[in-house]
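Review form for a predicted model. The reviewer records the input and the model, then writes brief findings.
Reviewer: anonymous (R2)
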Amino acid sequence: MAENEDGQERTEEATPKRRDEARKKGQVPRSRELTTMAMLLSGAISLSLMGGDIVAGLGEVMRSGLAVERSKIMDPWALLDILGQAVWHGFLTITPFLLVMVVTALAAPIALGGWSFSTQALGFKFDKINPLKGIKRIFAWRGVMELVKALAKFLIIGSVGVWLLQHYLPELMGLGRESTLSALAHTGSILTFSFLLLSASLIILAAVDVPFQIWDHNRNLKMTRQEIKDENKNTEGRPEVKARVRAVQREIAQRRMMSEVPKADVIITNPTHYAVALRYDTEGMAAPVVVAKGVELVASQIRTVATANGVPLFEAPPLARALFYSTEIEQQVPAGLYLAVAQILAYVFQLKASTRGGVVPARPNDIPVPEDFRQGPLADDSPEKNTTGPES
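Model under review:
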C-alpha cells in the first residue's frame, strides 16, 4: 500500500481538486508504448498507401536533378537554384506523410491523458539529476516493470521477425533472378508488409501498458484521510469560521429586517410564538408584502419594535402560522390568504381613520384560513386555537 512522507497509508481516491492540481503540474497518465505503437502503425499504413507516390515523386526529383544542361553545371548560382527546387519538390512529396506522423504524435498522448501543457513540468528539479534518486528509481518496482516491458517488446518483435524471415525466405532468395525494377518493387512490397506486421504486433504491448499507466497514475494520486480532511478545511473553510460567518450573516439580515418593522401596517401574531409584519401600498403594490417575520425571541423583538413605533398588533394564530410558513421576507402574500389578510388590513385602516373622528370599526372575529395553509405544531381546527381576540 502506498504511503506518504508521514507513513500514513494512501487508501482514499484522489479528490477532483487533487486531480486538477496534478494536471496543472503535468501529471497525467501517459503511455510511451501507446505512442510508439501509434507512430509506427500509422507510418506503416501511410507508407503502404502513399509509398508508391512518394517513391515516384522522389524519383522524379532525382531525374530532374541529374538532367542538368552543361551550361548550368558550370554556373554556381544555377546549381544553387536547381538544388533549392529539388529540396522544395522533395519536401512537397513527403509532406502528406509528415502531416500524418505529426497528427499521430499529438493525438496518441491526448487519447489517453488528454491535452496537458504545464510549465511546471519543465522546471528544474534536483531530484532529476540526483544519482541516489536515479538508482532508487532503477531498482524500484516501476523500474522492474519497465524491464519487463522491454523484454516483452524484444520477445514480441523478435518472434514476429523470425516468422517473417522464415515466411519470405524463398522470395528473398529469388530476388536475384528478377530484373532490377521488378526486384526493387518486390522488395518494397515485402518490406512494407513486414513493417506493417511488426508495428501491429506492438498493439499487444500497448493494450497491457495503457491500463497499467492509468492504474499507476491513480495509485500515485491517492490520498490519506488526513489529507482529505485538510483539503476540505482549506476549500470550504474551518467549521468554526463558517459558523461565525453564518452567525454574522443572520445578525445583519435580522437588523435589516427590524428596520422594516416601523414601516409595516400591521403585525399579525400567534400571539407569542409567531409574528409577521405586513405592509401594503394601495398605489404601488398588487398585494400585501411580508417585511419581517420570526418566532420566539425574534417574534418578541418584532412586537417590541412595532409597539414602540405605533404599529398595530393583531392576534390571529392560524393566519400568523400560515404566513410564516408560506411566505418569505419581501414576498407577496399568497393568493389563498388574500381574503384573510384583506379583512385585517381593512380593519386596521378603518381603525386608523377612527382616531381622526370616524366610527370605530368592529374587530373581525372569523379570519378564514384555507386548509392548505394550516401549518405548524398547532395546525388543527379546535375552537380554542382558532379564535381571534385583542392582543394582550
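Findings: The longest strand covers residues 289-295.
Further findings: The chain has a mean pLDDT of 81.
Recommendation: see findings above.
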